[in-house]
Amino acid sequence: MLYELPELEDADLRVLAEIEEMRGNLRLHLRTPRRWEGQLRRNLTARAIAGSNTIEGYAASVSDVEDIMVGETPIDAGETVTAEIEGHRQAMTYIQRLADAADDFAYSAGLLNALHFMMQGHHLLKRPGWWRTGPVYVTSAEDPTIAAYTAPAAEQVPTLTGELVAWLNDGDLAAPGLVRASMAHLNLMAIHPWSDGNGRMSRALHTLVLAREGIVAPEFSSIEEWLGRARNTYRYYDVLADVGGPVWTPERDSLPWVRFCLRAHHQQAQTVARQVETTREVWSGLDEAIGRRGWPERMIYALYPAAMGNRLRRVTYQADAELSEQQAQRDIRELVKSAWLVARGEAQGRYYVAGPELPDAVVRGVREPRPLRDPYR
């Protein structure tokens, strides 16, 4: 027996409808390919990966994650964090591919273990890709000697994961995709089938279910970024403890968990909508400003990250604009000379940020804070 879908109430149905409306608007924006979409997708993916790993204590900046995604050595992240990020990147990339997999796609224990190996393959002593053979606990943040949750015995793992796989393929198919994804997340987290990496895998499965449901691309629908914000992380663990119980107790009411996830999806959808709007405005503003200077349009690929408050690496610009190394170097030198970019660091650690002459009108909206609405209030 798994934790079961709750009966939704009117408030939940209203929140679901609002999320779907925001998703519909997003699909309209993405229907026509735009030049800025690739950089936006990479940034959203990086934010999701950074958020999920921060929960587990592997903190890395979004810029460092983007560097790792394009094969660059990160500026600040050490080897341990880089290995964790790279593993998560591999799994997330595969999930993004599975969004468009053939109709004969099916969930399986092998798929779950393969994703786990992608994430945790650098920890061979922890047997990545294999079910655990012993007990596992979620310990209290205040005292690691206190078990906040004790997972089912290892002997139960094959049966419970088999039941979860069967449900993923055939169970509650008429339920809203966001609700099915939330329940997949809860059940995998509660089973805790591996010796490590269960939290990241549960969040990844959540994203995979959404991807297979066709609820926009995974990078636009993941709530991992939202969960990685400190205040939300505390709430995440609290609601998991309240709903999951101290031990495997599938008869408990799962509605508080589903509501937590729907709130997360609603607020992340607000965040993504703002990011898309800001990206469009910044890109348009940069396009006009570059035109007034008589510079080539490709320079927008160098200026966009800086205008959005991130950093630029020469190799990334070279790849995004499809340039030779010499062309990329010449463009960046021109932008630094004009003080639209400022260089930081040395040698392999060199990067660029927004300079004092980058038009303020372009970046003003990026710096403007806006509140997120709680859909249940």
Summarize the model shown:
It is built from 16 helices and four strands.
Distance between the termini: 33 Å
Reported CATH architecture: Orthogonal Bundle
SSE arrangement, N to C: HHHHHEEHHHHHHHHHHEEH
Helical content (DSSP H or I, runs of 4+): 55-70%
Strand order, largest beta sheet: 1-2
The count of helical stretches stands at 16
Number of strands: 4
How many domains would you count in the coordinates? Answer: 1
CATH topology tier name: Fic-like fold
What value does the Rg take, in angstroms?
22 Å
- Class derived from helix and strand content: mainly alpha
Topology overview:
Layout (H helix, E strand, L loop, with lengths): L9 H22 L5 H19 L6 H8 L9 H20 L10 H12 L16 E3 L7 E4 L6 H14 L6 H15 L6 H16 L4 H4 L2 H4 L2 H15 L10 H39 L6 H8 L6 H7 L4 H13 L3 E4 L6 E4 L5 H8 L10
Helix pairs in contact: 1-12, 2-3, 2-4, 4-5, 4-8, 5-8, 6-7, 7-8, 7-12, 11-12, 12-13, 12-16, 14-15
Please tell me about this protein's structure.
It is built from 16 helices and four strands. The protein is mainly alpha-helical and 377 residues long. The chain has a single domain, classed as Fic-like fold (Orthogonal Bundle), CATH 1.10.3290.10. The strands form two sheets. Strands 1-2 form a two-stranded antiparallel ribbon. A two-stranded antiparallel sheet has the order 3-4. Strand 1 (137-139) and strand 2 form a beta hairpin. The radius of gyration is 22 Å and the shape is globular.
